[in-house]
Predict the structure.
Amino acid sequence: MKNKDVTFRLGELFCGPGGLALAAALVGERGVKSDDNRSFYINHLWGVDKDVDAIDTYKNNIVGRFGGEAICKDAFEFVNSMTDGQKSINAFAFGFPCNDFSSVGNQTGLGGKFGNLYQAGISVIKLTNPDWFVAENVSGINSADGGNAFKRILIDLANTGKGYNITPHLYKFEEYGVPQLRHRFIIVGIRKDLNRTFKVPVPTTQNLEMQIPVEKALEGISADCANHDFPRMSQSVVKRLQLTPPGKNAWFLDELLSMSPDERRKIIESLPWYKDVFKDMTDDDVCKMIMESKLNCKCARMSHIYRRLQGGLPSYTITGSGGGGTHVYHWCEHRALTNRERARIQTFPDWFKFSGSLEKVRKQIGMAVPTGGAIIIFESILKTFAGIQYDSIESNVDTSFLQSYVKTSINQKSSISKIRKDNIIELINNNCKFSYSDKVILKIKGFNNRSGIIYTIKDIDYHINLKDINLVLELFKNQQQITEDSLSTLLPNIFSSKVSSVKDYKEFFVIALFDELGIGKKCQPYPRKKIWALKPITEE
C-alpha cells in the first residue's frame, strides 16, 4: 500500500506582513520527499494580525499567491472566536510582540503591556494540538526579568496541550545567508507523542568571508521597484552624514572635533566623497561644520543613531521603530535607506509589495522575520518529519530545567466556589485594607447583592463581580503569574473602567485579595516598572 503524502496546514498569529509565512509557503510549495517516497508539504490556512496595513500586505502577497485567509483582528478576540475550519490546523507559527523583551526598551518582560501576549499562542496550541509550532522573539527575551520570563515561556510551551519537545536556539541570521546582524530566538516544538525532536540546522555562512555584504545585497534594484522611494533628507542631516565615515555614527563627530588638525584631516581625506565636499575647506571650516552638525544630546547615546552601514559587511539590525537617526544610513550616499533596500536586507523578494505609508512600511519590514533564514528552519522541520538526516548543531539554550519541572497547582482553592463567603465576611469584619502605596489604600466594605465585592478608596466606592474574580483565578492557574498590566491587556472588559476619571486599582485589588486568601503571593518583581504581580506561593 502506497504511503500517503503529508500536508501541514499552517496557521499564524501576530503574522505581520508575512516574513515567516512566505518562508513556510516557499518551502511548503516544493515540499520535501522522504526515503519511502512520501512528500511533506506546508499549506497556508490563515494569518492573524491587528495591524491593518500589515494584514493588507499579507493578503496581497501571501493569500494572493498561496491561498488561505488574512484576518485583521486582536489575537485574543480571534482565539475566542475560532471556527472549526480555523481549528483544523496541524502546524502553527507565532512571533509574539517583542516590545517588553527588546533590549532597546525597558525589558519589563511578562509584567509589561505586551509580555503576556504569548499566551494567545499558548491558547491556540491548546485548542488545536498541532504536530509542530514555531515561535519567534528578540534576543533580549533571555535577559528580561533576569531570565525568568524566558524560562516561564519555555515551561508553558513545553507543557501546553499534549506536551512538546522544544528546541529553542538563538539564531544569528548573518550565519544563515541573511545580509544582516540579526539575532533572534526561534523555538521549534514538536508534539511529544510523535517521537521526533527538531535539531538546529548548521549555519550556512558562519565565517565572515562567507557572509553576504550589504553592498551585494542591494545590487540591481530597479528604479521602478515598489517601495523604493528615496527619502527626503534635510541639509543638516546631509552635512552630518558627510562628516560620518562608513560604520560610524553621529557620536563620532564629537571624537572628530576633539582630534588634532592633522588627525582630523587624515580622517576627512579618507572619506570617499572628500574631493566633492571637503577638498577646498580649511580645518576651521571643517570644525565649524562639525559644530553645526553634531548632536548635543545628554541622554543615552544609542549606537545606531545616524550610523552608516559598511558596504563590505552585513548590515546592522533593521528595526521597525524609532525617530530621527534610526532609519539605517547608506555607506557612501548621504541618505537613509529606502524601504525596498530594507526589505532586501530582510531577504524579501522584490515582487513582495508592502502596503501603507513610508513609516508603516518601515515598521512592517523591521518587525518581520527574515524570510531567507526562516526558509532553512522550515526545511529542517519537514526533513525532521520525513526522517531525513541533515547537518545540525547543539542548541545554545540550556533546557535541562524542563526535565525536572513538575507543573504545580496554585493551591487547593481551585475555583471561586472554594473561596467561601465566610472568608470574605471575615476580611470585612476585620476591616481588611490593601496598601497599593503610602497614599493609596483600598478597604473591603462589603457585598453588593451577594454578586460582588465593594471596596473603597478615599471614600469612593468601587465594585467587582465574583464571576470576574473567577476569570482572573482561571487565568492565574493557566499562567502561573499575573500582573496589573497583563490583567488590563488580557481582560480589558473587566479592567478598563474608571470612575470620575479616577483610577479604580481593580487589578491590584484582585491581586491583593488572592494574596490575603492564600491563593498566591503578591510582589513587585519588576524594578524598572513598579507594578504589582501575583506569583504562586510554591514555585519549583
Q: What stands out?
A: The longest strand covers residues 39-49. The two ends are 49 Å apart (CA to CA). Residues 98-115, 406-419 have pLDDT under 50 and may be disordered.
